[in-house]
């Protein structure tokens, strides 16, 4: 088992211009892995971050954020496409960093809508198909796509 720290404990959104020092700080606290979320305002210079990760002998994982506008279970194909395009960008960042893990809650986040019956089965089908495509792309890039199951929304 490895000890990790999500950089959200200090500040958000992550930016390599401002937050590279958090890598060595995390290491000094015993962390072996850091994690950051790919928020709208996240700015990642993957070469600079990878260099610091290697210098500190640290690993990195990335958290994907899938609000309603990127919901992989959406009835709207354009919303699902935005979610998949976003996941592709996250996978690219992981690959450039040498990270092997992209995680995230990919459906229903922040939604106030309850879905039942046939509509639920349809939405689960959309989510499964979207996640299958993302997982295939991630596997091709050497990245594991890990789905965060949440029950608080």
- The class by helix and strand makeup works out as alpha/beta
Largest sheet, order of strands side by side? 1-2-3-4-5
> What is the gyration radius calculated from CA atoms?
16 Å
Order of helices and strands: EHHEHEHEHE
Extended strand count: 5
The global form is elongated
Major sheet details: 5 strands, parallel
Averaged pLDDT: 92
**Helical content, roughly?**
40-55%
Strand content: 15-25%
Query: What is the helix tally?
Result: 5
Compute the separation of the termini in Å: 29 Å
Low-confidence stretches: none
Topology of helices and strands:
Elements: E1 4-6, H1 16-19, H2 21-28, E2 33-37, H3 46-55, E3 59-65, H4 77-97, E4 101-105, H5 117-140, E5 144-147
Parallel strand pairs: 1-2, 2-3, 3-4, 4-5
Helix pairs in contact: 4-5
Folded structure, characterized:
The chain has five helices and five strands. Helices cover 44% and strands 16% of the residues. The model has no long low-confidence stretch (mean pLDDT 92). Helix 4 runs parallel beside helix 5. It is an alpha/beta fold and 153 residues long. It has a five-stranded parallel β-sheet.
């Amino acid at each position: 088992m490895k000890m990790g720290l999500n950089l959200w404990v200090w500040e958000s959104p992550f930016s390599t211009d401002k937050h590279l020092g958090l890598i060595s700080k995390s290491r000094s606290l015993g962390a072996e892995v850091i994690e950051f979320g790919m928020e709208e305002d996240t700015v990642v210079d993957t070469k600079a971050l990878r260099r610091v990760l290697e210098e500190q002998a640290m690993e990195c994982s990335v958290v994907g954020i899938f609000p309603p506008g990127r919901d992989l279970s959406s009835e709207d194909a354009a919303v699902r496409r935005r979610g998949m395009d976003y996941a592709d960008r996250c996978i690219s960042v992981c690959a450039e960093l040498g990270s092997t893990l992209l995680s995230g809650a990919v459906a229903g986040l922040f939604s106030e809508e309850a879905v039942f019956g046939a509509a639920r089965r349809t939405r689960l089908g959309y989510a499964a198909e979207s996640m299958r495509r993302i997982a295939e792309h991630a596997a091709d890039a050497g990245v594991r796509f890990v789905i965060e199951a949440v029950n608080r929304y």
